[in-house]
UniProtKB/TrEMBL annotation:
Keywords, comma-separated and alphabetical: Cell inner membrane, Cell membrane, Membrane, Transmembrane, Transmembrane helix, Transport
Membrane topology: Multi-pass membrane protein
Species annotation: Shimia haliotis
Principal location class: membrane
Subunit structure: The complex comprises the extracytoplasmic solute receptor protein and the two transmembrane proteins.
Protein name: TRAP transporter large permease protein
Source lineage: Bacteria, Pseudomonadati, Pseudomonadota, Alphaproteobacteria, Rhodobacterales
Transmembrane segments: 12-38, 58-77, 98-122, 142-166, 178-199, 245-265, 277-299, 319-352, 364-385, 405-424
Source superkingdom: Bacteria
Keyword Transmembrane carried by entry: yes
Keyword Amino-acid biosynthesis (UniProt): no
Entry's Gene Ontology molecular function annotations: transmembrane transporter activity
Cellular compartment(s): Cell inner membrane
Length: 435
């Protein structure tokens, strides 16, 4: 077999192994190592490239953002800030048809800005928002669908682990990726609120719900008390990066310290809780950095096989337009989203398409936003939709099946696709803050 044929076979093998349940970094690393060995018929070369990948990939200073932002998100979650933000949002939306759903979207958008985790958002708001919506006779499918749909904001609104992973693969600035994610994340949140209003207006049976007779507006003092810590944390982290006062690593460290102080002042953080947050930070960080290391050897394998260049030549010879390239890219991500998680999609497809995008003079920061939004649609689609599985497991309610969660999330996946098309058509939306 030629190096090109081995490279193509390796990509297929990686997808198949991940789909069969093999741990993603293992599949990436082992298949890439064996492919390099076969291509060059040199075991020592494959071993040396593996050593370089392990030694160089995660030793960069910017990867300190991974444990810092992870720890900050876990502390914020344990401090109960998500429930407080939801209380404030529900005060503003409760009298509107589908208002509790809109409140969930708003709360998720704010919560995402201090956690950066779709899984954390799905877990927190499954406990906080779904029981409230069921209490007021909302359709269970709509209730879980809102939580599933809005949970993906955690991977788009910075700080986001997926943006960090992309920044490594594409060699882009983490700070620029964070800033570029703000406008698309807010766009998606506004689109979700608009979609809920449309559903409430034209499909009232799907939304359900009844007026909140026991509704009592929160005093301004309580609103400030509940919302102040979260907004302050957002200003410290994103404001520090935007103004240039803090690097992403420094912002992560500062945000972690502020989050810890907030949790202690609110008496929500015991020594046991602190230790659990540290352990979970270690587990999450290790898994992400292991992914990045495996992605490094995978990228080297693709380079040796010449697969990205071959793909670029094929499209160049066919005179493929920008529209054709992006259509193929989005369709590929939507297909892989039914099989793989977001990180796997980014690590597999980005190294293949970067050589196609760069000669077209397109912004790689914009391309990263397109990649993350497109891959995140997979969180809401069967059979792998991770957010949907988390919601089902967190609720542990026999009245709501996994099918209900997926069907409830389907309209929000459609909204994501519309926003993705707008972001592709108007790149300035992603780059507005950077210009």
């Amino acid at each position: 077999m030629s190096p090109l044929e081995i490279g193509m076979a390796s990509v297929v093998a990686i997808v198949v192994l991940i789909y069969l349940g093999m741990y993603i970094p293992i599949a990436l690393g082992v298949v890439s190592f064996v492919s390099i060995w076969l291509m060059r018929d040199n075991f020592d070369l494959a071993m040396n490239l593996l050593k370089v990948a392990v030694g160089d990939s995660v030793m960069e200073y910017t990867f300190a953002t991974v444990p810092l932002f992870t720890f900050m998100g876990l502390v914020v979650s344990k401090a109960g800030l998500g429930a407080d933000v939801y209380d404030v949002m529900s005060t503003g939306f409760r009298r509107v048809k589908g208002g509790i759903g809109m409140a969930t979207v708003g709360a998720n958008a704010v919560f995402a800005a201090v956690t950066g985790s779709s899984i954390a958002s799905a877990s927190v708001f499954s406990k906080v928002s779904v029981p409230q919506m069921l209490k007021y006779d909302y359709n269970p499918r709509f209730a879980v669908g809102v939580v599933a749909g809005s949970s993906v904001l955690g991977m788009i609104i910075p700080p986001s682990a997926m943006l960090i992973i992309y920044s490594f693969v594409a060699e882009q600035s983490v700070g620029e990726m964070f800033l570029a994610g703000v406008v698309p994340g807010l766009m998606l949140a506004v689109a979700y609120v608009a979609a809920i209003w449309v559903m409430g207006r034209f499909f009232p049976k799907f939304v359900g719900g009844r007026p909140s007779e026991d509704f009592e507006p929160l005093p301004w003092g309580d609103i400030a008390t509940k919302l102040g810590p979260t907004l302050g944390l957002i200003v410290v982290v994103l404001g520090g990066i935007y103004t240039g006062w803090l690097t992403p690593v420094e912002a992560g460290a500062t945000g972690s310290l502020v989050a810890l102080v907030i949790a202690l002042l609110r008496r929500r953080m015991s020594l046991r809780g602190f230790w659990e947050a540290l352990l979970e930070t270690g587990h999450i960080t290790a898994s992400i950095l292991f992914l990045i290391t495996a992605a490094s050897i995978y990228s080297r394998m693709l380079g040796l096989a010449g697969l990205p260049n071959e793909l670029g030549d094929m499209l160049a010879n066919s005179q493929a337009s920008f529209f054709t390239v992006m259509l193929l890219y989005v369709l590929l991500m939507l297909f892989l989203g039914t099989l793989l998680d977001t990180a796997s999609i980014i690590l597999i497809v980005v190294p293949l398409f970067l050589p196609l995008v760069e000669p077209m003079g397109l912004s790689l920061v914009w391309f990263g936003i397109i990649t993350v939004v497109g891959a995140e649609i997979g969180l809401l689609t069967p059979p792998l939709g991770i957010s949907c599985f988390v919601i089902k497991a967190t609720l542990n309610d026999d009245r709501i099946s996994l099918k209900d969660v997926f069907l409830g999330a389907l309209p929000f996946a459609g909204v994501m696709l519309i926003v993705l098309i707008l972001l592709i058509r108007y790149p300035a939306l992603s780059l507005a803050i950077l210009n």
